[in-house]
């Protein structure tokens, strides 16, 4: 297929992932823990959410 282009770019995918990490969906059962950590961090200070995100990132290092 000459001229075929994907409808979603890598940049859009990565931006979407970043948005999910910054603003967890409270209506999704998969996101309750993230939302609770972020809410607690915003209300009480601290960095529990940021630490958890960093921990998850370290679990899956980039492949060179």
Describe this structure in words.
The chain has 64 residues and is mainly alpha-helical. It has a domain of 36 residues. Helices cover 59% and strands 0% of the residues. The chain is built from three helices and no strands. The chain is elongated, with a radius of gyration of 16 Å. The model has no long low-confidence stretch (mean pLDDT 81).
Number of strands: 0
Global Rg:
16 Å
Strand content: under 5%
Percent of residues in helices: 55-70%
Number of helices: 3
Order of H and E elements: HHH
Largest sheet: none
Which residues form runs of ≥5 with pLDDT under 50? none
Class by SSE composition: mainly alpha
Mean pLDDT: 81
Cα-to-Cα separation, first versus last residue:
30 Å
Q: Looking at the structure, what is the overall shape?
A: elongated
Quick overview:
With 64 residues, the protein is an all-alpha fold. The protein has helices at residues 10-22, 32-44, 48-59.
Keywords:
64 residues; mainly alpha; 3 helices
What's the structural blueprint in terms of helices and strands?
Elements: H1 10-22, H2 32-44, H3 48-59
């Amino acid at each position: 297929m000459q001229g075929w282009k994907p409808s979603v770019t890598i940049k859009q995918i990565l931006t979407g992932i970043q948005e999910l990490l910054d603003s967890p969906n409270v209506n999704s059962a998969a996101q309750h823990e993230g939302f609770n950590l972020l809410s607690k961090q915003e209300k009480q200070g601290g960095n529990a959410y940021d630490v958890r995100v960093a921990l998850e990132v370290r679990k899956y290092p980039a492949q060179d």
